[in-house]
Here is the input.
Amino acid sequence: MQTANLKAIGRMLLGVLLFSFMDAGLKRVSAYYPPMQVTALRAIFSLPFIALTLAWGNHWRSLRVNNYALYLVRIVLAIVMLVTFIYSVSVQGLTDTYAIYMSAPLMVAAFSRIFLKEPVPIRRWVAIAVGMLGVLIALQPHGHGMLSLGGLAAAASAICYAVSVLSIRVLGRTDSSYALVTWNLFGVAVVASAIAAPTWHSLAPAHLWILAMIGLTGALAQYFLTRAFQLAAAATVTPFEYTALVWGLLLDYFVFAITPSAHVLFGATIVIAGGLYLIWDEHRPTTGELSLHG
Here is the structure.
């Protein structure tokens, strides 16, 4: 079990890194295209990379679906999640959006306990809370930020993401990672394109490489995160999403010319410390642990 958890954590860390690069690309192109079109383009440009992976490993048979209704729910959640997130980063910085979006791991841990009956050891609740404290220290979200349209959009995106994670845990019991990723992207591409069609903007050639980068990083990141949630309980892997803060800070500095302040770096240190504790916790033997069981 510990080996599976460590593999899941490694996939989560890599997936978060790739998603951070994708987010930077989404922020760049959101200045030129409507959020729904960017959502469609994110899925469209990921599908070719997914198709290549399927063809390379001859995984076509793994696309079997066992619960069509839940796949449709995931597609709706993914569209709302992407549209609200893209809107949020289009009107404010990555770090401002992450300040609110980083509440998603707490939501996942709580929802997984309530709906999936997964045990959540108290020490991991503490580690998650410490990570959230680090996020608040680093980003210091103020009341006006929480109530702004960008802040509300980030909160809506976080809720959709948390519910989507639960669906992965359920579908992952019977369906492959390839099915979860491929059909979700295909559904988002079709539905979002149909909705965005009336106000579709022509693509500028200069943006094609950014869209290709979004497609590649998004496809890889979604696969790694899907595998992470299949390999381990949600409460085990979601705390490592806090590492997005570190990548967000670096991208803000090097790509968007935003210099982090001292309190941001201090908060990031706390977030990293919480993540390192959880990695250490996976290595130590357990004889009996106290969890929030019902």
User: Anything to note?
Assistant: The chain is about 75% helix and 0% strand. Confidence is low (pLDDT under 50) at residues 287-294. Residues 2-283 form one domain.
